[in-house]
UniProtKB/TrEMBL annotation:
Gene: asnB
Pfam families: Asn_synthase (PF00733), GATase_6 (PF13522)
EC number(s) on file: 6.3.5.4
Top-level taxonomic group: Bacteria
PROSITE patterns recorded: GATASE_TYPE_2
InterPro entries the record matches: Asn_synth_AEB, Asn_synthase, ASN_synthetase/amidase, AsnB_N, GATase_2_dom, Ntn_hydrolases_N, Rossmann-like_a/b/a_fold
Annotated ranges, domain Glutamine amidotransferase type-2: 2-213
Lineage: Bacteria, Pseudomonadati, Bacteroidota, Cytophagia, Cytophagales
Organism for this UniProt entry: Pontibacter ruber
Protein name from the UniProt record: asparagine synthase (glutamine-hydrolyzing)
Amino acid sequence: MCGITGVFAFTEAGRTALDRLQAAAEALRHRGPDGAGLLVRGDVGLAHRRLAIIGLEEAACQPMQDASGRFSIVYNGEVFNYKELRRKLQDAGYSFRTTSDTEVVLQLFLKEGPDCLKKLKGFFVFAIHDAQHDSLFIARDRFGEKPLLYYKDADKFLFGSELGALLELGVPREVDYTSLYQYLQLTYVPAPASMLKGVKKLLPGHFLYIQNNKVQQQMWYRLPFDAAKAATNPLNYPQQQAKLKQVLERAVVDRLTADIPVGAFLSGGIDSSVVVALAAKHVPHLKTFSVGFKDAPFFDETRYARLVAAKYKTDHTEINLTTQDLHGHLYNMLDSLGEPFADSSALAVYALSSHAGREVKAVLSGDGADELFAGYNKHMAEFQLLRGGAKIEAVEKLSFLWDVLPKSRQSFAANKIRQLQRFAAGARLNPSDRYWLWATWANEAEAINLLHDRYRATVAGRLYQARKRRLLSCLESNHYDLNSVLCADWQLVLGNDMVPKIDLMGMAHGLEVRSPFLDHRVAKFAFSLPVSSKIDASIRKKILQDTYKSMLPPELYKRPKKGFEVPLADFLKNEAADLMQQYMSDELIIAQGIFDVHQIKKLRKSFAASAAGSVQTQVWSLLVFQHWWKKWIM
Protein backbone atom coordinates (compact mmCIF):
# COMPACT_ATOMS: atom_id res chain seq x y z
CA MET A 1 0.00 0.00 0.00
CA CYS A 2 1.46 3.29 -1.06
CA GLY A 3 0.99 6.60 -2.83
CA ILE A 4 1.98 7.19 -6.44
CA THR A 5 2.23 10.23 -8.69
CA GLY A 6 3.78 11.08 -12.03
CA VAL A 7 4.25 13.37 -15.03
CA PHE A 8 4.32 12.69 -18.77
CA ALA A 9 5.50 15.87 -20.50
CA PHE A 10 4.48 16.41 -24.12
CA THR A 11 6.24 19.77 -24.63
CA GLU A 12 9.04 21.79 -23.11
CA ALA A 13 6.44 23.78 -21.19
CA GLY A 14 5.07 20.53 -19.79
CA ARG A 15 8.49 19.55 -18.47
CA THR A 16 8.25 22.23 -15.79
CA ALA A 17 5.85 19.90 -13.94
CA LEU A 18 8.77 17.48 -13.46
CA ASP A 19 10.36 20.07 -11.17
CA ARG A 20 7.32 19.81 -8.88
CA LEU A 21 7.24 16.01 -8.74
CA GLN A 22 9.12 15.83 -5.43
CA ALA A 23 6.59 18.17 -3.82
CA ALA A 24 3.73 16.06 -5.21
CA ALA A 25 5.24 12.94 -3.67
CA GLU A 26 5.65 14.75 -0.37
CA ALA A 27 1.91 15.51 -0.42
CA LEU A 28 1.41 11.71 -0.31
CA ARG A 29 3.81 11.07 2.58
CA HIS A 30 0.96 9.93 4.86
CA ARG A 31 0.14 7.13 2.41
CA GLY A 32 3.70 5.81 2.53
CA PRO A 33 5.73 6.79 5.59
CA ASP A 34 8.26 3.95 5.14
CA GLY A 35 10.18 5.30 2.18
CA ALA A 36 10.24 7.36 -1.01
CA GLY A 37 11.55 7.07 -4.53
CA LEU A 38 11.64 9.19 -7.68
CA LEU A 39 12.68 8.40 -11.24
CA VAL A 40 12.87 10.82 -14.19
CA ARG A 41 13.59 9.40 -17.64
CA GLY A 42 13.33 11.84 -20.50
CA ASP A 43 9.87 13.35 -20.47
CA VAL A 44 8.43 10.97 -17.85
CA GLY A 45 8.74 11.20 -14.09
CA LEU A 46 7.42 8.65 -11.59
CA ALA A 47 7.34 9.09 -7.81
CA HIS A 48 6.38 6.76 -4.98
CA ARG A 49 5.73 6.81 -1.25
CA ARG A 50 6.03 3.38 0.38
CA LEU A 51 4.05 1.60 3.08
CA ALA A 52 5.91 -1.69 3.46
CA ILE A 53 3.53 -4.63 3.96
CA ILE A 54 4.65 -7.28 1.42
CA GLY A 55 8.28 -7.63 0.32
CA LEU A 56 9.98 -5.59 3.04
CA GLU A 57 13.50 -5.70 1.58
CA GLU A 58 15.24 -2.60 0.23
CA ALA A 59 15.29 -4.01 -3.31
CA ALA A 60 11.47 -3.83 -3.38
CA CYS A 61 11.50 -0.05 -3.22
CA GLN A 62 9.92 1.88 -6.08
CA PRO A 63 9.99 3.08 -8.78
CA MET A 64 11.10 -0.42 -9.80
CA GLN A 65 12.61 -1.36 -13.14
CA ASP A 66 12.83 -4.66 -14.97
CA ALA A 67 16.26 -6.23 -15.60
CA SER A 68 16.56 -4.56 -19.01
CA GLY A 69 15.76 -1.10 -17.67
CA ARG A 70 13.12 -0.61 -20.37
CA PHE A 71 10.09 -0.78 -18.06
CA SER A 72 9.50 1.14 -14.81
CA ILE A 73 6.59 0.74 -12.39
CA VAL A 74 5.02 2.60 -9.50
CA TYR A 75 2.38 0.57 -7.73
CA ASN A 76 -0.17 1.06 -4.94
CA GLY A 77 -2.03 -1.96 -3.62
CA GLU A 78 -1.84 -5.63 -2.75
CA VAL A 79 -2.14 -8.64 -5.06
CA PHE A 80 -2.98 -11.53 -2.77
CA ASN A 81 -2.26 -14.34 -5.24
CA TYR A 82 1.19 -12.99 -6.08
CA LYS A 83 3.02 -16.11 -4.86
CA GLU A 84 1.01 -18.34 -7.17
CA LEU A 85 1.57 -15.94 -10.08
CA ARG A 86 5.27 -15.78 -9.27
CA ARG A 87 5.62 -19.59 -9.43
CA LYS A 88 3.92 -19.70 -12.82
CA LEU A 89 6.15 -16.93 -14.16
CA GLN A 90 9.25 -18.74 -12.89
CA ASP A 91 8.06 -21.89 -14.65
CA ALA A 92 7.83 -19.79 -17.83
CA GLY A 93 11.44 -18.65 -17.43
CA TYR A 94 11.08 -15.33 -15.61
CA SER A 95 13.48 -14.56 -12.77
CA PHE A 96 12.96 -12.36 -9.69
CA ARG A 97 15.21 -10.17 -7.58
CA THR A 98 12.69 -9.50 -4.77
CA THR A 99 9.91 -11.20 -2.81
CA SER A 100 7.47 -8.35 -3.52
CA ASP A 101 4.15 -8.43 -5.34
CA THR A 102 5.28 -5.28 -7.19
CA GLU A 103 7.81 -7.23 -9.20
CA VAL A 104 5.22 -9.94 -9.93
CA VAL A 105 2.84 -7.31 -11.36
CA LEU A 106 5.63 -5.86 -13.50
CA GLN A 107 6.78 -9.23 -14.85
CA LEU A 108 3.23 -10.39 -15.51
CA PHE A 109 2.58 -7.20 -17.48
CA LEU A 110 5.72 -7.81 -19.54
CA LYS A 111 4.44 -11.29 -20.35
CA GLU A 112 0.75 -10.58 -20.98
CA GLY A 113 0.19 -6.84 -21.33
CA PRO A 114 -3.25 -5.55 -20.25
CA ASP A 115 -4.57 -9.13 -20.09
CA CYS A 116 -2.56 -9.53 -16.88
CA LEU A 117 -5.19 -7.51 -15.03
CA LYS A 118 -7.71 -10.35 -15.10
CA LYS A 119 -5.28 -12.59 -13.20
CA LEU A 120 -4.70 -10.17 -10.32
CA LYS A 121 -6.70 -10.89 -7.16
CA GLY A 122 -6.66 -7.90 -4.85
CA PHE A 123 -6.73 -4.13 -5.15
CA PHE A 124 -4.31 -1.90 -6.97
CA VAL A 125 -3.42 1.08 -9.07
CA PHE A 126 -0.18 1.00 -11.01
CA ALA A 127 1.59 2.92 -13.76
CA ILE A 128 4.18 1.33 -16.07
CA HIS A 129 6.41 3.39 -18.36
CA ASP A 130 7.81 1.76 -21.50
CA ALA A 131 10.94 3.75 -22.38
CA GLN A 132 11.29 2.14 -25.82
CA HIS A 133 7.80 3.05 -27.00
CA ASP A 134 7.62 6.17 -24.78
CA SER A 135 4.22 5.11 -23.45
CA LEU A 136 2.52 4.97 -20.09
CA PHE A 137 0.01 2.31 -18.98
CA ILE A 138 -2.14 3.02 -15.89
CA ALA A 139 -4.71 0.57 -14.47
CA ARG A 140 -7.17 0.60 -11.58
CA ASP A 141 -8.64 -2.40 -9.76
CA ARG A 142 -12.11 -3.83 -10.34
CA PHE A 143 -14.00 -1.90 -7.67
CA GLY A 144 -11.79 1.15 -7.25
CA GLU A 145 -10.43 0.29 -3.82
CA LYS A 146 -7.31 2.26 -4.67
CA PRO A 147 -7.73 5.79 -6.06
CA LEU A 148 -6.23 7.44 -9.14
CA LEU A 149 -6.83 10.97 -10.43
CA TYR A 150 -5.41 12.47 -13.61
CA TYR A 151 -5.26 15.64 -15.70
CA LYS A 152 -4.30 16.26 -19.32
CA ASP A 153 -3.73 19.36 -21.38
CA ALA A 154 -1.72 20.12 -24.53
CA ASP A 155 1.57 20.14 -22.61
CA LYS A 156 1.38 17.27 -20.15
CA PHE A 157 -0.38 14.36 -18.48
CA LEU A 158 -0.39 14.30 -14.65
CA PHE A 159 -1.60 11.62 -12.25
CA GLY A 160 -1.66 10.87 -8.53
CA SER A 161 -3.27 8.86 -5.76
CA GLU A 162 -4.91 11.96 -4.29
CA LEU A 163 -5.94 15.36 -5.58
CA GLY A 164 -3.40 17.00 -3.28
CA ALA A 165 -0.57 15.57 -5.39
CA LEU A 166 -2.07 17.00 -8.60
CA LEU A 167 -2.51 20.38 -6.96
CA GLU A 168 1.21 20.36 -6.15
CA LEU A 169 1.89 19.47 -9.79
CA GLY A 170 0.09 22.63 -10.87
CA VAL A 171 -3.35 21.64 -12.17
CA PRO A 172 -5.69 24.63 -12.68
CA ARG A 173 -7.55 25.43 -9.45
CA GLU A 174 -10.96 26.02 -10.96
CA VAL A 175 -14.05 24.62 -9.24
CA ASP A 176 -16.32 22.38 -11.32
CA TYR A 177 -19.73 23.73 -10.31
CA THR A 178 -21.62 20.74 -11.68
CA SER A 179 -19.51 18.61 -9.33
CA LEU A 180 -20.27 21.00 -6.49
CA TYR A 181 -24.00 20.65 -7.22
CA GLN A 182 -23.70 16.86 -7.00
CA TYR A 183 -21.58 17.12 -3.87
CA LEU A 184 -24.20 19.25 -2.11
CA GLN A 185 -26.70 16.46 -2.71
CA LEU A 186 -24.51 13.42 -2.04
CA THR A 187 -21.68 14.66 0.26
CA TYR A 188 -19.10 13.44 -2.29
CA VAL A 189 -18.23 13.87 -5.98
CA PRO A 190 -18.92 10.71 -8.03
CA ALA A 191 -16.29 9.48 -10.48
CA PRO A 192 -15.17 10.19 -13.11
CA ALA A 193 -15.58 13.84 -12.12
CA SER A 194 -13.71 15.67 -9.37
CA MET A 195 -14.21 19.02 -7.69
CA LEU A 196 -11.78 20.62 -10.14
CA LYS A 197 -12.45 21.23 -13.83
CA GLY A 198 -10.28 19.03 -16.01
CA VAL A 199 -9.24 16.66 -13.22
CA LYS A 200 -10.77 13.20 -13.58
CA LYS A 201 -10.87 10.00 -11.55
CA LEU A 202 -10.00 6.83 -13.39
CA LEU A 203 -13.11 4.66 -13.18
CA PRO A 204 -12.92 1.28 -11.41
CA GLY A 205 -12.10 -1.58 -13.77
CA HIS A 206 -10.56 0.75 -16.36
CA PHE A 207 -7.07 1.44 -17.70
CA LEU A 208 -5.40 4.30 -19.58
CA TYR A 209 -2.79 4.13 -22.33
CA ILE A 210 -0.85 7.34 -23.01
CA GLN A 211 1.31 7.73 -26.11
CA ASN A 212 1.96 10.46 -28.70
CA ASN A 213 0.12 13.06 -26.60
CA LYS A 214 -3.07 10.96 -26.67
CA VAL A 215 -4.92 9.28 -23.81
CA GLN A 216 -6.99 6.19 -24.54
CA GLN A 217 -9.29 4.73 -21.89
CA GLN A 218 -10.67 1.20 -21.85
CA MET A 219 -12.82 -0.88 -19.52
CA TRP A 220 -11.23 -4.19 -18.53
CA TYR A 221 -13.76 -5.34 -15.90
CA ARG A 222 -17.52 -4.99 -15.55
CA LEU A 223 -19.57 -6.14 -12.56
CA PRO A 224 -21.20 -9.43 -13.69
CA PHE A 225 -24.78 -8.42 -12.92
CA ASP A 226 -27.90 -9.76 -14.61
CA ALA A 227 -31.07 -9.22 -12.55
CA ALA A 228 -33.15 -11.66 -14.58
CA LYS A 229 -30.51 -14.38 -14.34
CA ALA A 230 -30.08 -13.86 -10.58
CA ALA A 231 -33.83 -14.30 -10.11
CA THR A 232 -33.51 -17.86 -11.44
CA ASN A 233 -30.35 -18.97 -9.59
CA PRO A 234 -30.30 -22.81 -9.80
CA LEU A 235 -28.81 -23.34 -6.31
CA ASN A 236 -31.18 -23.94 -3.42
CA TYR A 237 -30.76 -21.88 -0.22
CA PRO A 238 -28.54 -24.40 1.69
CA GLN A 239 -26.32 -24.69 -1.40
CA GLN A 240 -26.10 -20.90 -1.60
CA GLN A 241 -25.05 -20.79 2.06
CA ALA A 242 -22.36 -23.40 1.46
CA LYS A 243 -21.04 -21.40 -1.49
CA LEU A 244 -21.01 -18.19 0.56
CA LYS A 245 -18.94 -19.91 3.26
CA GLN A 246 -16.46 -21.06 0.65
CA VAL A 247 -15.92 -17.75 -1.16
CA LEU A 248 -15.95 -15.53 1.93
CA GLU A 249 -13.51 -17.70 3.89
CA ARG A 250 -11.15 -17.66 0.93
CA ALA A 251 -11.46 -13.86 0.69
CA VAL A 252 -10.65 -13.46 4.40
CA VAL A 253 -7.63 -15.76 4.20
CA ASP A 254 -6.35 -13.90 1.13
CA ARG A 255 -6.59 -10.58 2.95
CA LEU A 256 -4.49 -11.87 5.80
CA THR A 257 -1.59 -12.11 3.32
CA ALA A 258 1.22 -9.88 4.61
CA ASP A 259 4.77 -9.94 5.94
CA ILE A 260 3.53 -8.07 9.02
CA PRO A 261 0.60 -8.61 11.46
CA VAL A 262 -2.92 -7.75 10.21
CA GLY A 263 -5.66 -6.55 12.57
CA ALA A 264 -9.38 -5.88 12.12
CA PHE A 265 -11.98 -3.18 12.67
CA LEU A 266 -14.84 -4.50 14.80
CA SER A 267 -17.93 -2.30 14.89
CA GLY A 268 -20.29 -4.72 16.63
CA GLY A 269 -22.42 -5.10 13.52
CA ILE A 270 -22.93 -8.36 11.65
CA ASP A 271 -20.50 -7.60 8.79
CA SER A 272 -17.30 -6.87 10.70
CA SER A 273 -18.22 -9.53 13.28
CA VAL A 274 -18.37 -12.22 10.56
CA VAL A 275 -15.00 -11.08 9.22
CA VAL A 276 -13.43 -11.20 12.70
CA ALA A 277 -14.94 -14.61 13.41
CA LEU A 278 -13.40 -15.99 10.22
CA ALA A 279 -10.05 -14.24 10.63
CA ALA A 280 -9.68 -15.35 14.26
CA LYS A 281 -9.62 -18.97 13.05
CA HIS A 282 -6.33 -18.21 11.31
CA VAL A 283 -4.79 -15.53 13.56
CA PRO A 284 -4.56 -16.25 17.31
CA HIS A 285 -5.19 -13.15 19.45
CA LEU A 286 -6.16 -11.10 16.40
CA LYS A 287 -5.84 -7.39 17.16
CA THR A 288 -9.29 -5.77 16.90
CA PHE A 289 -10.34 -2.13 17.20
CA SER A 290 -13.71 -0.52 17.83
CA VAL A 291 -14.86 3.04 18.41
CA GLY A 292 -17.74 4.32 20.52
CA PHE A 293 -19.19 7.55 21.90
CA LYS A 294 -19.48 7.46 25.67
CA ASP A 295 -21.45 10.72 25.80
CA ALA A 296 -23.91 9.65 23.06
CA PRO A 297 -25.27 6.14 23.73
CA PHE A 298 -27.58 6.29 20.68
CA PHE A 299 -24.44 6.10 18.48
CA ASP A 300 -22.46 3.63 20.62
CA GLU A 301 -22.19 -0.06 19.68
CA THR A 302 -19.07 -0.99 21.61
CA ARG A 303 -20.80 -3.48 23.90
CA TYR A 304 -21.68 -5.64 20.89
CA ALA A 305 -18.11 -5.46 19.63
CA ARG A 306 -16.98 -6.50 23.11
CA LEU A 307 -19.12 -9.65 22.93
CA VAL A 308 -17.51 -10.72 19.64
CA ALA A 309 -14.02 -9.91 20.91
CA ALA A 310 -14.61 -12.02 24.01
CA LYS A 311 -16.02 -14.94 22.04
CA TYR A 312 -12.98 -15.08 19.75
CA LYS A 313 -10.41 -14.03 22.36
CA THR A 314 -9.09 -11.16 20.27
CA ASP A 315 -6.61 -8.59 21.52
CA HIS A 316 -9.27 -5.89 21.64
CA THR A 317 -8.85 -2.11 21.83
CA GLU A 318 -11.89 0.06 22.49
CA ILE A 319 -11.60 3.73 21.64
CA ASN A 320 -14.25 5.70 23.53
CA LEU A 321 -14.59 9.16 22.04
CA THR A 322 -16.24 12.32 23.26
CA THR A 323 -17.29 15.10 20.91
CA GLN A 324 -14.27 16.97 22.29
CA ASP A 325 -12.08 14.12 21.07
CA LEU A 326 -13.67 14.45 17.63
CA HIS A 327 -12.81 18.14 17.64
CA GLY A 328 -9.21 17.22 18.44
CA HIS A 329 -9.08 15.32 15.15
CA LEU A 330 -11.21 17.78 13.15
CA TYR A 331 -8.68 20.05 11.47
CA ASN A 332 -6.16 17.29 10.78
CA MET A 333 -8.91 15.25 9.15
CA LEU A 334 -10.05 18.20 7.03
CA ASP A 335 -6.48 18.95 6.01
CA SER A 336 -6.08 15.35 4.84
CA LEU A 337 -8.79 15.81 2.18
CA GLY A 338 -7.50 16.70 -1.27
CA GLU A 339 -11.14 16.92 -2.36
CA PRO A 340 -14.24 17.79 -0.30
CA PHE A 341 -15.72 14.63 1.24
CA ALA A 342 -18.51 15.10 3.77
CA ASP A 343 -19.58 11.67 4.97
CA SER A 344 -19.48 12.66 8.65
CA SER A 345 -18.64 9.12 9.79
CA ALA A 346 -15.23 9.72 8.18
CA LEU A 347 -14.32 11.67 11.31
CA ALA A 348 -14.86 8.58 13.46
CA VAL A 349 -12.96 6.38 10.97
CA TYR A 350 -10.13 8.93 11.08
CA ALA A 351 -9.97 8.72 14.89
CA LEU A 352 -10.19 4.92 14.81
CA SER A 353 -7.46 4.69 12.18
CA SER A 354 -5.26 7.01 14.21
CA HIS A 355 -5.28 4.53 17.09
CA ALA A 356 -5.12 1.35 15.00
CA GLY A 357 -2.29 2.74 12.87
CA ARG A 358 -0.04 2.90 15.93
CA GLU A 359 -0.24 -0.88 16.35
CA VAL A 360 -0.69 -2.38 12.85
CA LYS A 361 -0.26 -1.36 9.23
CA ALA A 362 -3.23 -3.30 7.84
CA VAL A 363 -6.74 -4.13 9.09
CA LEU A 364 -9.73 -6.08 7.82
CA SER A 365 -13.15 -4.43 7.65
CA GLY A 366 -16.74 -5.36 6.85
CA ASP A 367 -17.32 -2.74 4.15
CA GLY A 368 -19.36 -3.80 1.13
CA ALA A 369 -21.71 -6.29 2.79
CA ASP A 370 -24.64 -3.85 2.95
CA GLU A 371 -24.40 -3.17 -0.79
CA LEU A 372 -24.10 -6.87 -1.63
CA PHE A 373 -26.75 -8.35 0.64
CA ALA A 374 -29.30 -5.51 1.16
CA GLY A 375 -28.39 -4.12 4.55
CA TYR A 376 -29.59 -0.51 4.44
CA ASN A 377 -32.92 0.91 5.55
CA LYS A 378 -33.59 2.04 1.98
CA HIS A 379 -33.28 -1.59 0.84
CA MET A 380 -36.03 -2.68 3.21
CA ALA A 381 -38.06 0.35 2.11
CA GLU A 382 -37.72 -0.60 -1.56
CA PHE A 383 -38.54 -4.23 -0.79
CA GLN A 384 -41.69 -3.23 1.12
CA LEU A 385 -42.74 -0.77 -1.57
CA LEU A 386 -42.41 -3.36 -4.35
CA ARG A 387 -44.28 -5.85 -2.17
CA GLY A 388 -47.13 -3.41 -1.41
CA GLY A 389 -49.90 -3.81 1.14
CA ALA A 390 -52.09 -1.87 3.55
CA LYS A 391 -49.22 -0.67 5.76
CA ILE A 392 -47.44 0.85 2.79
CA GLU A 393 -50.61 2.65 1.68
CA ALA A 394 -51.08 4.01 5.21
CA VAL A 395 -47.55 5.44 5.35
CA GLU A 396 -48.12 7.17 2.00
CA LYS A 397 -51.48 8.62 3.04
CA LEU A 398 -49.97 10.03 6.24
CA SER A 399 -47.26 11.94 4.38
CA PHE A 400 -48.79 15.25 5.52
CA LEU A 401 -48.07 14.17 9.11
CA TRP A 402 -44.47 13.11 8.50
CA ASP A 403 -43.85 16.46 6.76
CA VAL A 404 -44.68 18.49 9.89
CA LEU A 405 -43.35 16.31 12.72
CA PRO A 406 -39.77 16.95 13.95
CA LYS A 407 -37.16 14.86 12.14
CA SER A 408 -33.60 14.10 13.21
CA ARG A 409 -30.91 11.42 13.25
CA GLN A 410 -30.26 12.13 16.93
CA SER A 411 -32.89 9.88 18.53
CA PHE A 412 -34.85 6.75 17.68
CA ALA A 413 -38.29 8.43 17.42
CA ALA A 414 -37.17 11.46 15.41
CA ASN A 415 -35.10 9.25 13.12
CA LYS A 416 -38.10 6.99 12.49
CA ILE A 417 -40.22 10.00 11.50
CA ARG A 418 -37.44 11.11 9.14
CA GLN A 419 -37.43 7.66 7.54
CA LEU A 420 -41.22 7.59 7.17
CA GLN A 421 -41.22 11.01 5.54
CA ARG A 422 -38.53 9.96 3.02
CA PHE A 423 -40.38 6.71 2.34
CA ALA A 424 -43.66 8.50 1.61
CA ALA A 425 -41.92 11.01 -0.66
CA GLY A 426 -40.10 8.25 -2.56
CA ALA A 427 -43.17 6.07 -2.95
CA ARG A 428 -44.68 8.64 -5.32
CA LEU A 429 -41.68 8.54 -7.71
CA ASN A 430 -40.45 6.23 -10.47
CA PRO A 431 -37.57 3.87 -9.52
CA SER A 432 -34.74 6.10 -10.77
CA ASP A 433 -36.05 9.28 -9.14
CA ARG A 434 -36.86 7.38 -5.95
CA TYR A 435 -33.36 5.92 -5.81
CA TRP A 436 -31.80 9.35 -6.27
CA LEU A 437 -33.99 10.82 -3.53
CA TRP A 438 -33.05 8.08 -1.10
CA ALA A 439 -29.36 8.22 -2.02
CA THR A 440 -29.06 11.98 -1.42
CA TRP A 441 -28.98 14.13 1.70
CA ALA A 442 -30.35 17.24 0.00
CA ASN A 443 -32.73 17.13 -2.94
CA GLU A 444 -31.95 18.89 -6.21
CA ALA A 445 -33.98 21.98 -5.35
CA GLU A 446 -32.34 22.36 -1.94
CA ALA A 447 -28.86 21.94 -3.42
CA ILE A 448 -29.35 24.35 -6.32
CA ASN A 449 -30.85 27.01 -4.04
CA LEU A 450 -27.66 27.04 -1.96
CA LEU A 451 -25.66 28.15 -5.01
CA HIS A 452 -25.26 31.74 -6.17
CA ASP A 453 -27.81 32.53 -8.89
CA ARG A 454 -24.99 32.95 -11.45
CA TYR A 455 -24.51 29.16 -11.38
CA ARG A 456 -28.10 27.94 -11.13
CA ALA A 457 -28.85 28.08 -14.84
CA THR A 458 -25.97 25.78 -15.83
CA VAL A 459 -25.21 23.26 -13.09
CA ALA A 460 -28.33 21.14 -13.69
CA GLY A 461 -27.86 21.02 -17.46
CA ARG A 462 -26.87 18.29 -19.90
CA LEU A 463 -23.53 17.52 -18.23
CA TYR A 464 -25.22 16.91 -14.88
CA GLN A 465 -27.96 14.79 -16.45
CA ALA A 466 -25.40 12.67 -18.34
CA ARG A 467 -23.42 12.05 -15.16
CA LYS A 468 -26.58 11.14 -13.29
CA ARG A 469 -27.76 8.74 -16.02
CA ARG A 470 -24.46 6.87 -15.89
CA LEU A 471 -24.74 6.44 -12.13
CA LEU A 472 -28.30 5.11 -12.45
CA SER A 473 -27.66 2.78 -15.39
CA CYS A 474 -28.27 -0.34 -13.27
CA LEU A 475 -31.90 0.75 -12.80
CA GLU A 476 -32.66 0.75 -16.52
CA SER A 477 -32.75 -3.06 -16.85
CA ASN A 478 -35.89 -4.67 -18.27
CA HIS A 479 -35.95 -6.83 -15.14
CA TYR A 480 -36.14 -4.33 -12.26
CA ASP A 481 -36.01 -5.61 -8.69
CA LEU A 482 -34.07 -4.91 -5.49
CA ASN A 483 -30.90 -6.37 -7.03
CA SER A 484 -31.01 -3.45 -9.49
CA VAL A 485 -30.87 -1.09 -6.52
CA LEU A 486 -27.92 -3.00 -5.04
CA CYS A 487 -26.09 -2.71 -8.37
CA ALA A 488 -26.68 1.07 -8.35
CA ASP A 489 -25.42 1.23 -4.75
CA TRP A 490 -22.31 -0.71 -5.74
CA GLN A 491 -21.56 1.89 -8.45
CA LEU A 492 -22.58 5.04 -6.58
CA VAL A 493 -22.45 4.61 -2.81
CA LEU A 494 -19.77 1.97 -2.41
CA GLY A 495 -17.51 3.24 -5.19
CA ASN A 496 -17.68 6.94 -4.29
CA ASP A 497 -18.43 7.04 -0.56
CA MET A 498 -17.62 3.88 1.40
CA VAL A 499 -14.45 2.82 -0.43
CA PRO A 500 -12.90 6.32 -0.60
CA LYS A 501 -13.75 6.85 3.07
CA ILE A 502 -11.81 3.85 4.32
CA ASP A 503 -8.94 4.51 1.92
CA LEU A 504 -8.58 8.21 2.73
CA MET A 505 -9.04 7.92 6.48
CA GLY A 506 -6.89 4.80 6.81
CA MET A 507 -4.09 6.07 4.61
CA ALA A 508 -4.06 9.40 6.44
CA HIS A 509 -2.39 7.29 9.15
CA GLY A 510 -0.45 4.88 6.94
CA LEU A 511 -3.08 2.19 7.57
CA GLU A 512 -4.29 -0.16 4.84
CA VAL A 513 -7.94 -1.25 5.13
CA ARG A 514 -8.90 -4.54 3.45
CA SER A 515 -12.49 -5.73 3.08
CA PRO A 516 -13.15 -9.37 2.17
CA PHE A 517 -16.62 -8.42 0.91
CA LEU A 518 -14.90 -6.48 -1.89
CA ASP A 519 -13.27 -9.62 -3.23
CA HIS A 520 -14.45 -9.91 -6.85
CA ARG A 521 -15.40 -13.56 -6.36
CA VAL A 522 -17.59 -12.68 -3.38
CA ALA A 523 -19.22 -9.85 -5.34
CA LYS A 524 -19.82 -12.07 -8.36
CA PHE A 525 -21.48 -14.70 -6.17
CA ALA A 526 -23.60 -12.16 -4.28
CA PHE A 527 -24.93 -10.61 -7.49
CA SER A 528 -25.90 -14.07 -8.73
CA LEU A 529 -28.32 -14.51 -5.81
CA PRO A 530 -32.06 -13.82 -6.03
CA VAL A 531 -33.58 -11.07 -3.90
CA SER A 532 -35.33 -13.70 -1.75
CA SER A 533 -31.92 -14.89 -0.47
CA LYS A 534 -31.00 -11.41 0.71
CA ILE A 535 -34.11 -9.92 2.27
CA ASP A 536 -37.64 -10.69 3.42
CA ALA A 537 -40.22 -8.84 5.47
CA SER A 538 -38.37 -9.48 8.74
CA ILE A 539 -34.64 -9.56 7.95
CA ARG A 540 -31.99 -7.83 5.85
CA LYS A 541 -28.74 -9.47 4.74
CA LYS A 542 -30.67 -12.69 5.19
CA ILE A 543 -28.16 -15.18 3.79
CA LEU A 544 -25.25 -13.53 5.60
CA GLN A 545 -27.06 -13.55 8.93
CA ASP A 546 -28.41 -17.09 8.53
CA THR A 547 -25.11 -18.58 7.35
CA TYR A 548 -23.06 -17.28 10.28
CA LYS A 549 -25.66 -17.21 13.05
CA SER A 550 -24.06 -20.07 14.95
CA MET A 551 -20.71 -18.23 14.98
CA LEU A 552 -21.92 -14.94 16.47
CA PRO A 553 -23.30 -13.89 19.87
CA PRO A 554 -27.13 -14.00 19.83
CA GLU A 555 -27.31 -10.40 21.12
CA LEU A 556 -26.21 -9.17 17.69
CA TYR A 557 -29.50 -10.47 16.26
CA LYS A 558 -31.74 -8.80 18.82
CA ARG A 559 -31.32 -5.16 17.90
CA PRO A 560 -32.21 -2.83 15.03
CA LYS A 561 -29.75 -1.99 12.26
CA LYS A 562 -27.46 0.92 13.13
CA GLY A 563 -25.29 2.77 10.69
CA PHE A 564 -21.79 3.91 11.58
CA GLU A 565 -22.48 7.52 12.53
CA VAL A 566 -21.29 10.33 14.78
CA PRO A 567 -23.39 12.69 16.95
CA LEU A 568 -23.05 15.37 14.30
CA ALA A 569 -25.62 17.99 15.34
CA ASP A 570 -24.35 18.20 18.92
CA PHE A 571 -20.78 18.30 17.68
CA LEU A 572 -21.46 21.17 15.28
CA LYS A 573 -23.46 23.15 17.83
CA ASN A 574 -20.82 22.88 20.51
CA GLU A 575 -17.23 21.79 19.87
CA ALA A 576 -17.22 22.70 16.16
CA ALA A 577 -19.12 25.98 16.51
CA ASP A 578 -15.87 27.78 15.62
CA LEU A 579 -15.98 26.12 12.20
CA MET A 580 -19.43 27.55 11.52
CA GLN A 581 -18.34 31.00 12.60
CA GLN A 582 -15.37 30.87 10.22
CA TYR A 583 -17.01 29.42 7.16
CA MET A 584 -20.69 30.41 7.15
CA SER A 585 -20.39 34.11 7.95
CA ASP A 586 -22.16 36.58 5.65
CA GLU A 587 -18.86 38.33 4.99
CA LEU A 588 -17.13 35.21 3.66
CA ILE A 589 -20.14 34.01 1.66
CA ILE A 590 -20.52 37.39 -0.07
CA ALA A 591 -16.80 37.75 -0.78
CA GLN A 592 -16.56 34.17 -2.04
CA GLY A 593 -19.44 34.52 -4.53
CA ILE A 594 -20.20 30.79 -4.73
CA PHE A 595 -23.23 30.45 -2.47
CA ASP A 596 -26.47 32.40 -2.02
CA VAL A 597 -26.05 34.42 1.16
CA HIS A 598 -29.80 34.48 1.89
CA GLN A 599 -30.07 30.68 1.66
CA ILE A 600 -27.04 30.27 3.91
CA LYS A 601 -28.67 32.58 6.45
CA LYS A 602 -31.82 30.44 6.34
CA LEU A 603 -29.73 27.30 6.80
CA ARG A 604 -27.97 28.83 9.81
CA LYS A 605 -31.31 29.74 11.37
CA SER A 606 -32.74 26.28 10.76
CA PHE A 607 -29.71 24.69 12.34
CA ALA A 608 -29.84 26.99 15.36
CA ALA A 609 -33.52 26.14 15.86
CA SER A 610 -35.16 22.76 16.44
CA ALA A 611 -34.50 21.67 12.83
CA ALA A 612 -30.78 21.08 13.43
CA GLY A 613 -31.08 17.32 13.04
CA SER A 614 -32.69 17.61 9.60
CA VAL A 615 -30.11 20.01 8.11
CA GLN A 616 -26.94 18.88 9.90
CA THR A 617 -25.56 17.08 6.85
CA GLN A 618 -26.09 20.11 4.60
CA VAL A 619 -24.25 22.27 7.13
CA TRP A 620 -21.40 19.78 7.44
CA SER A 621 -21.08 19.50 3.65
CA LEU A 622 -20.75 23.26 3.37
CA LEU A 623 -18.16 23.45 6.14
CA VAL A 624 -16.02 20.71 4.59
CA PHE A 625 -16.15 22.43 1.19
CA GLN A 626 -15.30 25.80 2.69
CA HIS A 627 -12.26 24.44 4.49
CA TRP A 628 -11.03 22.83 1.28
CA TRP A 629 -11.71 25.98 -0.77
CA LYS A 630 -9.88 28.19 1.70
CA LYS A 631 -6.87 25.84 1.78
CA TRP A 632 -6.51 25.12 -1.93
CA ILE A 633 -8.49 27.65 -4.03
CA MET A 634 -8.78 30.98 -2.22
